Amino acid sequence: METIELSGKTAIVTGGSQGLGRCTATRLYAAGANVGVNYLPDRQGLHRIAAESLVQTLGDRAFALECDVRDAAAVEKMCQEIKCRTGRLDIVVNNAAVIRDRTLVKMSDSEWQEVIDTNLTGVFHVCRAAAELISDGGRIVNMASISGVVGFYGQVNYSAAKAGVIAITKVLSKELAKRRITVNAVSPGVVLTEMGQTIPKEVQADMLKQIPLGRFAEPQEIAGVVLFLCSDLASYVTGQTLHVNGGWVT
Q1: Which residues have C-beta within 8 Å of that of residue 182, sequence separation ≥ 6?
Q2: What is the CATH number for 152?
Q3: How far, rounded to the nearest angstrom, does the alpha carbon of residue 51 sit from its chain's CA centroid?
Q4: Of the four listed, 12, 40, 189, 222, which is most buried by Cβ atoms within 10 Å?
Q5: Which residue of the set 29, 39, 153, 158 is catalytic?
Q6: How many domains is the chain built from?
Q7: What is the per-residue pLDDT across 7-19, written as a single tens digit (0 to 9) for each?
């Protein structure tokens, strides 16, 4: 049986200090890749502590990268740093995201803009910077969401951003195909991460009724799909959005 082997390759996972990003970084590292764990700088330094803790747990092929993906210049600098550290960049996982749920009429401009800037513009910044540095035959995986397909109550900002991520994925798959760089999206349903746990219990109960498998996803189940898309097994898969939601949406 063929196994996934990423030895000698370098990956970056944005928003890699927690949740899906943390799990994805761990899976890529276990497959042999050098892994840059990106984290958002914050006043309390909590993201830095989480990222450095993960790097220490993983080992010497992992390193922490402070960068706000909303800042184009900072993203350019981060991608250059990755290339300087390992001499290459092969895998990009755009996972950084925030959630600021509120109904349309109550949503503030700042709540709209923060989600769009992080979840959509951040993906644009990272893809643009990485496209200049990523090796031919590289992999870009963008984290979308079921919310970007069906639209959830109170998530006009999040749904719009994630739908945009799916569109970016389709366009870039065509623009980068001549270099054999594949670009795909993973669209999870509800995942039991820190973000998923913020959903009110009564809403969770209603959601569960709509999922044929009858449960929410574990982070490693989403990370496993990302790992597949980053591997040679997925060399002919590009421009696709893989829905990983227990049959909720097909």
Answers
A1: 138, 139, 140, 173, 176, 229, 234, 235, 237, 238
A2: 3.40.50.720
A3: 15
A4: 12
A5: 158
A6: 1
A7: 999 999 999 999 9
